[in-house]
Amino acid sequence: MKKLLGASLCIWGICVVQTAIAQEKRSLTGSVKDAQGTTLLGVTVGIKNTSIGTVTSADGKFHLNISDKDTLVLSFVGFNKKEVAVNKQGDMKIILEATATSLNETVVVGYGVQKKVNLSGAVTSVNFDKTMQSRPVTDLSTALSGMAPGVSVSQASGQPGRENATIRIRGVGTLNNADPFILVDGIESSMSDVNMADVESISVLKDAAAAAIYGSRAANGVVLISTKKGKKGKTTVSYNGYYGVQKATRLFNPVSDYATYMQLMNRVAVADNPSNTLPFKQATIDSWKNATDRTLYPNTDWMGVLFGQGKMTGHTVSVSGGSDKTTYYMSLDYLHNEGIMKNTSQDRYMMRLNADHEISKKIKVGANIALTWKERREPQDVGTILTNAASTTPGITPKITDANGTRYGGRNTDDENGQLDNPLQYIETWNRPNRQQRTFAKVYGEWSIIDGLKFQVNGAADYFNVAQKSYALAGAIQNRWNFQKNIVAQQLDQQPASLAQMDSTNLHLTYFATLNYTKNLGTDHHFNVLAGMSSESVRGTLMTASVQNFPTNNTWELGAGLEQPKVGGTSDIYKIISYFGRVNYDYKNKYLLEANLRRDGSSKFRSGLQYGVYPSFSAAWRLLEEPFIKDVIPAWVNNVKVRASWGKLGNDRIPLYSFMDLYSAGQNYSYGGSIAAGLTPLTMANQNITWEKTTSSNLGVDANLFNDHFNVTFDVFNRHTSDILVKLGLSSLYGGLTPPYQNVGIVDNKGWELSMGYNNSAGDFRYGISGNVSNINNKVVKFQGNAIGTLSGASVIKEGWSIGSLYGLQVAGIFQNDADVAAWAKQRTAGTNKPGDFKFVDMNNDKVVDGADRINMGNTIPNWYFGLNLNAGYKGFDLALLFQGVGGVKRYYQDNWYTSGIRAGREINADFQNAWTPDNPNTNMPRLTAAANTDNTQANTFWVQNASFVRLKNIQLSYTIPKKVFRSTLQSIRVYVNAQNAFTWTKFKGLDPEVSDYTQPGIQYPNVRVITGGVNVIF
Fold it and tell me: Which residue range or ranges hold the TonB-dependent receptor plug domain (predicted)?
């Protein structure tokens, strides 16, 4: 009986204890956000000293059964682990602090964002800090120079309004348009119409895995630009203003001493025929040597006449802030840029408004609006003016303005050639104002249907208008004067005032919708699925008109012209529709997988060939998440991730209607003995053309070391483009028909990229260094057999060579005497060479030098790209330097400003004062000859120059004034000085080694060195 009673009491006691424990357990909900208020998905929330736990949902919420005595343990990649005692708290709101690591950085990717730690594709993100945003960059496209591995940025011109750079991502993969796909806030637009101060970040998607969500638009890479948004809290007002001056980085170097010039021209006259009469008398040469009046006896340096010092000023004001429901960011920007060439300038106005509003906890709406207005002023085509400017001499007085008015100079001596140009006359009497307007508007709505499921719809319109007038004043081509004799030196036909006008519009409409679902299965499996569709249309119009003879030089309107009215116009439309999807999966934040699929349909191909399907796959492995690896890796290794990807992309960047026969109207025919209007064919069609195809593979590794002070990324890639659309030659039987496109070309780009960075501080001193280097090898695998296609001058396309390789004869030296000529292989088809001519290598040893002896003289596409960033700071002082460079590139440099073949009345480059003569045999420069003698100016290795360069692209020194110095209403005052294109190290002798197309000659508007001072104030 006692035993039974004891057992009963024991059972009763256990039940009481269990009941008490059960009563202590309760349901707890909570949410987890970061310090900025962003909800965090996938945070592990566990009960300390137990195996019980959960993860946060898409809205950052969690639910657990706990007791008041429990302690929660929260952990998430990129954030510090946190323990929180429950006590008697109800709905818990927990904030996690980001760890001191770059792994928690958010990177913009296609149709969304990802944390850097979770990326499996090749993506480079450029964050625009205070140093970047205060750089006086007149075009955003130039801001990426040296900032991203595998990204080449080349600014070909410093002309106001034409500074836009050419961007190439991982080389040149096509023989057509190789520009990357540019998106601003998710919509295709222009980098040139985005204010640098408005940019939050730029992401560059380089491999197919990262870019395939954009399908056919992404074959040349993708650049995603995200503009700033407002943040909840106090309204912030910011002002940035600067003033700067600019000079050419380099100018041509002509002989400016006219006496020396005349002596050189006498040498040219008798170079091939010693019996020729010398054009310049010794008396004329002596008169210039002894003269003191340089107006009548000028030694004109035309570079000093055409170019001077430019100036620029810029002002940006921005306002941002928000409430719990609404956030906003607005900016106004003004830029005035006066160029270094007379009559070149630009005024630019920009406005941006980004706003977001939360209608409810489930519905959000937003809008991005941007307006741009630009007015560019220039004479007629600057490149043409500079080319023609070489057709003058230092013996011309540019102009004289006196009681007789303004008169432009011609030759001042009868010895000189009578047909001379006066480039100043063109610059001052020809005008081509250009006005550009862009209106960009995007609206979006987002609906959180259920936890983890979001639907977003976006609509955008991008309207772009260009209006341009080209007019010449009445008598713009006027007589040119001999100021020594005060008579007309050159009688020219008097042209009436003329006006040509162009107006074009482009309306780009975009619609896309996405459905995004995020799901976690337990604590280990995390899924994100995206599905969407997009539709785009681009409608363009073009109107042209011209008229002549105006009553005055002040009525530049078409209706005011009196003679020769002409009009023309056209329009076009392009459409593309797409369906796309993406699946992301990660297991324990250890194994990361991503798959993309996109189907595009383009109106540039005929029905039946309009659609292409583009898949990609990528995977990544975070090694330190493996216990067996983490245990053997040193503690100073914080993260190691291995990535691999493969994908296929398309390209349809060829002219519209290329699959159709095209005809030209306005062609007259004789029909039945009378003239009848008709059509004539222009282009032969190929209805079977279809997408170019790019297959890309990538293998990469990312590592963070020394508590994230040091990071390194290395990628190896292979980019194979096939079915490239090429225009092959037609038989002469087809007359002047333009040949059709055919899918025949194949181009490979293989290479590797390395980027490294180190940042640290010691007390008040902080410092950092980061750099990147890329090696890219370009090769034309298939073109048209052994045939050679010419791109420009000595630049050709040939199978087995890089695109635009230089093709010509190998120079072995210079003939020193007649015996030297006689002993060499025959080079001329008629006659013999003379001492001072080049010796060319007989490559096939047939004793004759001809076209069969030409060789590959070098690549015009660089093999090496690199950038280097250095920064240091002490208390309020900051210093930042950016270096940019390319290597392994050649450029063919022979043009009107640099040649040994001289026409009468043309400039002579000062370098050719060292040309070969019997008294100057130890030189590598050939003798000076008349331009008709092409022995030395045919394509050969002498004219091939090393265009590699290193440039100090930007240097900035700034000082942030201590807040105690100024009123408390101000948050910050920062003053700075900045130099753009400060120094350049190169062997290239042309205007500038930084060019958009290395196959082109060197005559362009020079790049500029800009020195600015500015202030940034935040209220």
Answer: 118-222
In single-letter form, the type of residue at position 762 comes to A
Q: Which of 225, 208, 223 is nearest to 650 (CA)?
A: 208
The DSSP code for 998 is T
Type of residue numbered 531: A
Q: Nearest Cα to 875, choosing from 765, 1003, 733, 778?
A: 765
CB 131 within 8 A of CB 958: yes
Could you give the CA distance from residue 149 to residue 935 in angstroms, rounded to a whole number?
43
C-alpha–C-alpha distance, residues 581 and 186, integer Å: 16
Give 754: exposed, middle or buried? Use CB within 10 Å, 0-12, 13-18, 19+.
middle
Whole-angstrom distance, CA of residue 56 vs CA of residue 77? 13
pLDDT digits (tens, 9 = 90+) for 815-833: 999 999 999 999 987 788 9
Cα–Cα distance measured from residue 296 to residue 484, given in angstroms and rounded to the nearest whole number: 5
Q: Which residues contact 196 (CB under 8 A, 6 or more apart)?
A: 128, 132, 133, 135, 137, 140, 143
Find the DSSP H helices in 59-152: 130-133
Pairing relationship of beta strands 855-858 and 487-490 according to DSSP bridges? unpaired
Residue intervals of the chain classified under CATH 2.170.130.10 are: 106-229
Please name the residue that has the structure tokens 């750079």.
165
> Distance of CA 222 to CAs 219, 507, 867, Å?
8, 22, 20
Tell me whether strands 901-902 and 929-930 are parallel, antiparallel or unpaired: parallel
Options 3.40.1360.10, 3.20.20.450, 3.10.20.340, 2.170.130.10; which CATH number does 106-229 get? 2.170.130.10
φ and ψ of 531, to 5 deg? -135, 145
Helices (H), 740-850: 818-823
Picking from 696, 699, 681, 701, the residue whose alpha carbon sits closest to that of residue 624 is: 701
Q: Which CATH superfamily is domain 27-95 in?
A: Carboxypeptidase-like, regulatory domain (2.60.40.1120)
Which residues, in sequence order, are CB contacts of 415 under 8 Å at separation 6+? 262, 279, 280, 281, 284
Phi first, then psi: give them for residue 167, nearest 5 degrees. -110, 130
Which pair of tokens denotes residue 761? 């501080």
Give Cβ neighbours of residue 529 (< 8 Å, ≥ 6 apart): 516, 517, 518, 519, 581, 582, 583, 584
Between 282-290 and 258-269, two packed helices, what is the crossing angle to 10 degrees?
160
> For residue 304, with 0-12 CB atoms within 10 Å meaning exposed, 13-18 middle and 19 or more buried, which class applies?
exposed
Enumerate the H helices of 793-949 as residue ranges.
Answer: 818-823
CA distance 814 to 929: 14
Task: Determine how β-strand 181-184 pairs with β-strand 222-227.
Answer: parallel
Q: Tens of pLDDT along 76-131?
A: 766 777 889 888 888 888 988 766 555 567 788 888 888 777 788 888 888 776 66
Alpha carbons within 13 angstroms on the beta-carbon side of residue 314 total 28
Mind listing the pLDDT tens digit for each residue in 433-486? 999 999 999 999 999 999 889 999 999 999 999 999 888 775 555 678 889 988
Q: How far apart are alpha carbons 638 and 648 in whole angstroms?
A: 33
How many CA atoms, within 13 angstroms, populate the side-chain half-sphere of residue 822? 3
Task: Report the alpha-carbon distance of residue 160 to residue 241 in Å, rounded.
Answer: 18
What is the C-alpha separation between 620 and 117, in angstroms, rounded?
10
Q: Is 235 left (phi over 0), alpha (psi -120 to 50) or beta?
A: beta
**Which part of the chain has CATH 2.60.40.1120?**
27-95
* Rounded-to-integer distance, Cα 818 and Cα 969, Å: 85
pTM of the model: 0.85
Q: How does pLDDT run across 662-680, given as a tens digit for each residue? A: 767 666 666 666 777 777 7
At residue 713, what are phi and psi to the nearest 5 degrees?
Answer: -135, 130
Quote the tokens at residue 101: 């690591």
The phi, psi pair for 926, rounded to 5°, reads -70, 170
